[in-house]
Amino acid sequence: MSPSTLMLCVFLIWPVASDVVLTQTPGMESVRLGGDVSFKCSASKDIGWGLSWYHMTHGQAPRLLIKLGNELYTGVPSRFSGQRSGSDFTLTITGVQDEDAGHYYCLQTREAPLTQ
């Protein structure tokens, strides 16, 4: 991997107690600095706008990026954006930077228990 390429990962934990199952793709993505990348999260049923996106790096607490499907959280750079189409949600990073490397995951906030 060249120094100008980052690995971005997504992961999904499947709890047994919830009716809402989230499927996140792709599982791993390699992208050049300055490039664009998108991750998709599909809910097994309608959760309205009840989905958030998080970024996590080794040794750090998860960082909220997007809440309510498409609302940029305070202090998050505008290169991050969220979209919704029915039960499908997309996180897009436009112009990937070094600090964007790490794990990305979605969390549904519509029904208890919350699921990733």
Largest sheet: spatial strand order: 3-1-10-5-6-7
Q: How would a crystallographer describe the biggest sheet?
A: 6 strands, mixed
Order of helices and strands: EEEEEEEEEE
Task: Identify the CATH architecture.
Answer: Sandwich
Report the principal-axis shape: globular
What is the first-to-last residue Cα distance? 29 Å
Give the averaged pLDDT, no decimals.
84
Radius of gyration based on Cα positions: 14 Å
Our count of helices gives 0
CATH superfamily: Immunoglobulins
Q: From the 3D structure, determine the CATH topology.
A: Immunoglobulin-like
Protein architecture, described:
Residues 15-116 form the Ig-like domain. Pfam families: V-set. This is Ig-like domain-containing protein. Residues 1-18 form the signal peptide. The chain is an all-beta fold and 116 residues long. The protein has a single domain (5-88), classed as Immunoglobulins (Immunoglobulin-like), CATH 2.60.40.10. Helices cover 0% and strands 48% of the residues. The protein has strands at 5-10, 22-25, 28-32, 36-43, 51-56, 63-67, 71-72, 80-85, 88-94, 102-108. The strands form two sheets. A six-stranded mixed β-sheet has the order 3-1-10-5-6-7, with no helix packed on it. The N and C termini lie far apart (29 Å). Mean pLDDT is 84; it is low at 13-17.
